[in-house]
From TrEMBL:
InterPro entries: DUF6786. This is DUF6786 family protein. Pfam families: DUF6786.
Length: 407
């Protein structure tokens, strides 16, 4: 495979080779404008909110119960999710993947390898044969329940992996808003005064609806949650990890070529990764050192994002590299991606991503497995954000600013 093509298609979870983008000159659209646009083009748009609360979350069953975007300040507030206006507005589907955007989408792994879900049996790991399964790309998920601040969906289908095994599975996904009390409980801290927040949890269940057990020898899937957010020149991804003598070896930073020092700073137990949407790069953190609480700091828009998820340190995680693998269950628990132009100058975004995965799912017929993730956004003045960053990561905002000012 040509280097450009490999860089374009390895797991950022995304087909960056597409040239469509978000047509929003100047300031990004606010939440209300995004809602109006999506309701114009989609049939199944749900806006979650709680009485007396300004937080909002927009979900659509048309795109696999995807959280498209959210706001901490109602319709006029900043809209956190990156949305592919061009693709959605065209009303057309594209080959290989439909990257509609959205700040949390449900996927299944692995992407590559002998148990890949994105390559048919007998075909080489080449772009021509790479295809996002319809279940996690174009399928419509049906609403099964709706309540204030909460909506549930389900879908049933089949996926065949590269080894020829066919999974018959059911997917159930619930999205629910969280109030301030729950946010503080999940974080284990009191929020500083002066912050506005929006937070939601997704509960994702996969069931084995077939008549045989899922086994390592025929391939095991994982639940994969990916979020696409709006970048800025003053945004950095923040990812904590467990310190140790070998920690650096368990951080992969060369998926698309080595990430330069200007764009990645690895400290004893936390890394900063530039999220400006101007230079393609991806990193992965192994489950042995991955910690919950990855997110980002956007100094341009005075906001902090936090993702909470479970990590099984000794668990088996799928490997998505495009090759037959010696260790197909030795992959990443957490991934981060910064979008950027390809060699021909085209670009799908710009956006950046923070992703988490479950460990592998081995189910007998009739069994089910759940994996949950919480996404939180906080807005406020510099002092409130400074206090929050210290509480979350013991991270001075000045050190983030200095990192981002590197030439």
């Amino acid at each position: 495979m040509k280097p450009l093509l490999m860089a374009c298609l390895l797991t950022a979870g995304i087909a960056g080779c597409q040239t469509s983008g978000n047509k929003q000159p100047g300031k990004p659209a606010n939440f209300g404008e995004d809602v109006a646009f999506l309701r114009q083009h989609l049939k199944n748009v749900v806006v979650l909110q709680l009485p007396g609360d300004s937080s909002r979350v927009l979900v659509t069953g048309d795109y696999q119960a995807r959280v498209m975007t959210s706001s901490a300040s109602g319709d006029a507030g900043n809209s956190f999710g990156w949305i592919n206006y061009d693709l959605i507005g065209s009303g057309k589907l594209t080959p290989h993947i439909n990257a509609f955007g959205g700040e949390e989408r449900f996927w299944l792994g692995p992407e590559g390898g002998q148990y890949a879900l994105f390559f048919p049996p007998g075909k080489p790991y080449e772009f021509t044969h790479w295809q996002t399964p319809g279940m996690i790309d174009t399928a419509h998920y049906n609403v099964t329940a709706e309540a204030p601040g909460e909506v549930s969906y389900q879908y049933t289908g089949t996926i065949q992996n590269h080894a020829g095994y066919t999974f018959k599975l059911g997917v159930a996904r619930t999205v629910r808003l969280l109030d301030k009390k729950t946010i503080e409980s999940r974080l284990g801290i009191a929020l500083p005064e002066g912050l506005r927040s929006v937070a939601y949890e997704t509960e994702n269940q996969v069931s084995n609806l077939g008549d045989s057990a899922w086994q390592e020898t025929t391939g095991l899937p994982s639940i994969w949650l990916l979020g696409m957010f709006k970048p800025s020149e003053q945004t950095a991804v923040v990812a904590p990890f467990r310190p140790g003598a070998d920690s650096r070896k368990l951080i992969t930073d060369d998926y698309f070529g080595k990430i330069p020092a200007r764009n990645l700073q690895v400290n004893d137990s936390l890394l900063l990764f530039r999220a400006d949407g101007k230079a393609r790069g991806k990193l992965g953190i192994a489950p042995g050192i991955a910690k919950t609480g990855a997110g980002s700091i956007d100094l341009a828009n005075n906001s902090i994002t936090v993702l909470l998820y479970d990590v099984t340190p000794n668990g088996k995680y799928v490997n998505s590299k495009w090759e037959d693998q010696a260790e197909p269950y030795k992959g990443d628990a957490v991934n981060c991606y910064n979008d950027g132009p390809l060699e021909d100058g085209t670009q799908m975004g710009p956006f950046y991503e923070v992703e988490s995965s479950s460990d592998v799912i081995a189910l007998k017929p009739g069994e089910a497995r759940k994996y949950s993730q919480v996404t939180m956004h906080f807005e406020g003045d510099a002092e409130a954000l400074k206090a929050l960053a210290e509480k979350l990561w013991q991270l001075p905002l000045d050190s983030v600013r200095q990192f981002l000012q590197q030439k």
